[in-house]
Amino acid sequence: MTSLYNLFYPHSICIVGASSKQKSIGYELLNSIKRYGFTGEVFPVNPKVDVILDYKCYENIKEITKTIDLGIIVVPKAFAEDSIDDLISNGIKSIILITAGFRETGVEGELAEKRIIEKIKKSGARLVGPNCMGVINTFSDIKLNATFVAEKPATGHTAFLSQSGAIGAAVLNSLRESGIKFGHFISVGNKADISENDLLRFWNNDDRINTLTFYLESFSNGESFINNFIENNINKPVIILKAGKSASGIKAATSHTGALASSDKVVNAVLEQFGIIRANDLNELFNTAKGFENYPIPRGNRIAIVTNAGGPSILAVDKLEEGNLVLAELSPETIKRLKEIVHPEGSCTNPVDLLPGGNAEQFKSVNKLLLEDDNVDGVVSIFVEPVMVSPFELVEGINSIKSGKPLMQVVMPLPEFWEKYRQESVFNYPIFRNPEDPVEVLSNMLFYSDSKVKKERLRPDKTIPKKYNCGYLSQQETDVLLNEYNIPNIPSLLVTPEELIKITELSFPVCLKGISPNVIHKSELNGVKLNISTFEELLKSANEIERNFSFKGFTVEKFLIQPFLKVKHELLVGGFRDPSFGPIVMFGSGGKYVEILNDTSMKSAYLSENDIEDLISTTKVGQIIKGVRGDKGVNLNIIKSLVKNSARMILNNKEILEFDLNPLIVTDDNIMITADARIKWGRS
Fold first, then answer.
1. Tens digits of per-residue pLDDT, 186-231?
2. Does a cis peptide bond (omega within 30 degrees of 0) precede residue 509?
3. Which residues lie closer than 8 Å to 648 by C-beta, 6 or more apart?
4. What letter would DSSP give residue 347?
5. Phi, psi of 329 (to 5 degrees)
6. pLDDT in tens, 508-524
7. Which of 403, 438, 433, 404 is nearest to 305 (CA)?
8. How many Å apart are CA 225 and CA 417, to the nearest integer?
9. Strands 567-578, 656-667: parallel, antiparallel or unpaired by DSSP?
């Protein structure tokens, strides 16, 4: 961790490409370091000048005889590789390459980036970037702003990683307006070496950092990222704003499971599974961080609202339900005492309405009463400024209330309030501008709290690797694999068209399916015939399937004969290997209309028992199979076991790219059996 430590806690910095030209990156970065008050030594490297901003300049890195903790490169791309060589030769293990023009520009830039990373790995150094904007440490013993943004950030205990330099700059430029405070900031650019995976572990072990926030456009290795949560190693809130929701899904997905998957669905499912908060925008990202930094986590989901205006409180109440929160039912004693404070035309039930005339003393008394009610887990106070009430005194009065429960304020004042609050507030707690915001924050905090319970999860078993040809497994290979993992598969007879006509004994009724290695979904070619009751009907159905295949340019190589079962429910259990997060499993409504119904849920295959329960219960069919309107419910333990065994199968066999158990039939007798199974084998 030394290389990562020196990124944020260096005692000496070398800036290769420092410039005396104002408005250049080399000048502005050095100026930011100076203006923010870095407590260590600074060594600018520039062969053309002797002094920049009162710092002595060095002609080259070799002239610097002192130990350098952190090297920052801002030279043009043409000189970047030589600068890397010089820093490595000088024994510098922590390097930030701010220079752009690498992988993001095309093949030539990508090759240059690869050469640099090969040198970095060979030397044992670590590198941030390229194409990034630097790091910040706000703590007083370091005071490092090694970026080219002029803002002077205030100290907090939140860490923020931005994959986008522009987003990072926008956040830094709005600090005074937004009230965001953080301990560490880093822009990682192309993530050629150091990525979110490194910073997740580093910040989790840094006692000065309490909350971890990330703006990401991609996960470098999602499976490695979540492995920290699988192993229960992360003990701090993690909040991620993941861009690219509309990005196309899994490429070349051919199974039902693959078709239902998309990159954003996977991100949502996996982050939720491992207790990682996903923010929808920058506002939610940093509001939630402020929540963890400034307020106790609510002990439950019962929220009280106090307001002087109806509209904003309605918006807040609407948001409660979205966030799995509820309006607290106030105790009779609280309502009795509220009636002594609230105007007769106001409301003493939740939300408590003080009307526009509600003053600072009333707001403070009411908020205090609500916090004292055992039925209340948190309070949202909403104030819309009327002519007759000054917001500053009112807000400060509420800020002075001490409680072990969260009390969050929404203030909708005239513009001049904000500067006065920043300059004069004794408490300087966060103030929210929209009535929905604190509800969102409370919901996120409670989600994190509920997710903190350590869970035992499935892990890959030590198994002997299997060798199959790439592509969809044959029926026999599929049967062997399903049998190994105790996944019930319907008895099947696989015959050639020539063998079919020679069959003399068969228990009817049966189903007949045409098989061709090039046909994935047989029903799309009308290649499945059900409830066949005689040999004559069997041969007629076979001829029809052959004609249907031929019409689309396919040939039936074999026929699959299976017993016909009366179906009560058609389910789907499937899985696929996500390019970033690895093995994913899915459960939901099955059958040929699976994509239309789109009633599925998914999770990482590293399942806990609670995950399996959630996977089933969050689908509509999962509720139906429990038994509704007098129907006998399905044995859920059998389904849970089947889901778990399917997860073990894809965990143990890294070559499984996709698998479908569809339909997984539940009969009238509540027997569960796989009627059709497809497993795609290959290299992920």
1. 999 999 999 999 999 999 999 999 999 999 998 999 999 999 999 9
2. yes
3. 458, 461, 485
4. B
5. -90, 110
6. 999 999 998 888 778 78
7. 438
8. 42
9. antiparallel
Measure the CA–CA gap between 10 and 139, rounded to whole angstroms: 12
- What CATH code would you report for 296-451? 3.40.50.261
Closest CA to 116 of 92, 80, 91: 80
- pLDDT (tens digit per residue) in 547-574: 999 998 899 999 999 999 888 999 999 9
Q: Which CATH architecture has domain 2-209?
A: 3-Layer(aba) Sandwich (3.40)
Give the C-alpha separation, 482 to 288, whole Å: 45
CATH 3.40.50.261, the chain: domain bounds: 296-451
pLDDT bucket at 259, cuts 50 / 70 / 90: low
Sign of the Cα torsion 551, 553, 557, 560 reads: negative
Residue 1 pLDDT: 78
Provide mean pLDDT across the span 460-487: 93
- Identify the CATH assignment for 568-681 out of 3.30.470.20, 3.40.50.720, 3.30.70.20, 3.40.640.10: 3.30.470.20
pLDDT bucket at 254, cuts 50 / 70 / 90:
very low
* Cis previous bond, 430, omega within 30: no
Beta strands in 325-456 (DSSP E): 326-327, 352-353, 378-384, 407-412, 431-432
Cα 373 from chain centroid (whole Å): 35
pLDDT value for 261 = 53
Q: Name the band, by pLDDT with cuts 50, 70 and 90, for residue 249.
A: very low
Handedness of CA 536, 540, 541, 545 (dihedral sign): positive
Q: Is the dihedral of CA 137, 140, 141, 145 positive or negative?
A: positive
Give the right CATH number for 491-563 from 3.30.40.10, 3.30.1490.20, 3.40.50.300, 3.10.20.30.
3.30.1490.20
- Is 0.70 topped by the overall pTM? yes
The pairs formed by 103-106 with CB atoms below 8 angstroms and a separation of 24 or more are 103/130, 103/131, 103/190, 103/192, 104/131, 104/190
Helix (H) or strand (E) holding 212: strand 211-216
CA 526 from chain centre, in angstroms, equals: 40
**pLDDT of 601 above 80:** yes
Pick the closest to residue 36 from 160, 132, 139 (CA basis).
139
DSSP readout, 403-429? -SS-EEEEEE--THHHHHHHHH-SS--
Q: How many other C-beta atoms can be found within 10 angstroms of the C-beta atom of residue 186?
A: 28
Q: What is the Cα–Cα distance from 260 to 255, expressed in whole angstroms?
A: 9
